[in-house]
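Final report, section 2: Outcomes. Of the targets proposed, EKC/KEOPS complex subunit BUD32 is the one most frequently requested by collaborating groups, and we therefore present its record in full.
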Amino acid sequence: MIKPQDRFFSEGQGYFGPRENPITETHCNVWDWDRLRMVKVKGTAKLFPPDEDVEVPILAQFADYLSPKVRAITVDNDGLLAGVSTDPEEDDTLFVAYLPFSILESLADCRTIQHSKLQELDRLGPGVDLSSYEDEFGIPHKVAFKFNPLEKPLRLQMAWDELNLLKSLPPHPNIVPFDRVVLEDVESRVIGFTTKYISGETLANPKVPFRFEWMQQLTRLVDFLNLELGVMHQDIAPRNLLIDPDTHKILLFDFDWAASGKKRLLDGRDDVTGVVFTLYELITNDTHFTSIPHWDRNMDMVQNISEWTCNRELDSDVSTFRCFLNEWVAMRKSDGDMERYLNAPNRLTWPDLPTAPDYDVPFELGKTSDGEPIWTTGPRFRRTAMEKGQYCFRWERPTQSKAKNDTY
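The predicted structure is given below as tokens.
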């Protein structure tokens, strides 16, 4: 089940007047990862000050009780429910023009699965479900289904890059294997992908003992990705490291921040630095460095700490881990490391994210002062796309928690 603290996020506050005026009408769009829908929360500036996201805990009180038809709720200055609206014009969900599989040459060799063939077993986190399906031979598979239901340029780019990267990675004993491309059933558009489901714990659980051999596996894997394939994971962290209960090997997953060469390469997110902070956190269980932006972090912050207080079960002394880490960092940070990464002999590449042809369809944005329609193209509300007769894949689903009999 999705953790309560991860279920909602707010897109901010929209003020219809001066935000300093407590009676200014205020709208806040809140996304619900459990029900995969947007709900508009309406009130006043007195209740919704800028950047405080008060709307999230307010909606959380009512979300499981709202009918699927509800597009907006109104609350009073005490945060109590004052009204609901089912008006489709209140729905500010943006249209996502998923790309047709037939035009994506880079994915042509991938196996596919229709969304309707996936049976939901659990909701592991925002945009990740545990699912199962039977393949063409009737063999059952349990998979992690990863998807992006949001029309945000960065999220669309990350989803495209991760899918193309994962399908291109050679099989590796320390990487969660790619499985299939997921297509919606009506027009065979790409809406996500599956990977093999690994039932083991992540290293984010401090109760999982940490082995020296896993440290060795991780550094070898990072060397392979960086120096052989020219790939920078850019999100090495305990939460992205699984222990395979069958092989007892460490497995890396979640490549949505990954870079290929200079493409999407970010300052402060190199994998060597990621390994250093990961090992420090694994040994000490000190997570406060995770709150520091990557661009403000450097590995000396933890490497210069003379003693790493051990707060996890280890199979070797802390000094053994640190000595190995220091030698590996010295080797990787020697002259020419970035050049070796940029000139990796088997660097993976893939096409840029195509612009969906759906966005070329013009729609009326408004009217001029003379009453003439203003036509434009590009991103649009889902309700606008539906008015234009464009196909919209709908993600909405019931809450995973116990069904409620009463709805507003």
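Residues 212-228 form the longest helix (17 residues).
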